[in-house]
Prior knowledge:
The protein is of the alpha/beta class. The protein has helices spanning 22-34, 53-60, 76-80, 115-136, and strands at residues 11-16, 39-44, 84-87, 101-104.
Amino acid sequence: xxxxxxxxxxxxxxxxxxxxxxxxxxxxxxxxxxxxxxxxxxxxxxxxxxxxxxxxxxxxxxxxxxxxxxxxxxxxxxxxxxxxxxxxxxxxxxxxxxxxxxxxxxxxxxxxxxxxxxxxxxxxxxxxxxxxxxxxxxxx
Length: 140
């Protein structure tokens, strides 16, 4: 008897303007909580030079260190390679391709904010990522 073919792992792309805050937090949470069962990407329409230091500090409080991540520029190839594209304030910069699932998460931008302002954004992102995982991965 031939075992059933396994479903390919879903892929998710998180996009925000600078790829230094919201999208980095979302990607880090999905990578951790998805435990290798989801392909994770993040990018920005106008990437910064480094991840926001307040974001690094807020994520360290929950045991995640995104400081080694480098913000990446959004490319059509990254969108095409993803099943789900989640935008977080990137405006019209995100290319749209047929057959992709697009979600827009309205979240405060942590740019220029201190860690106290980043914590609630971090916690909301974690909650949304947990909900996304329930949709993407079958129970079991």
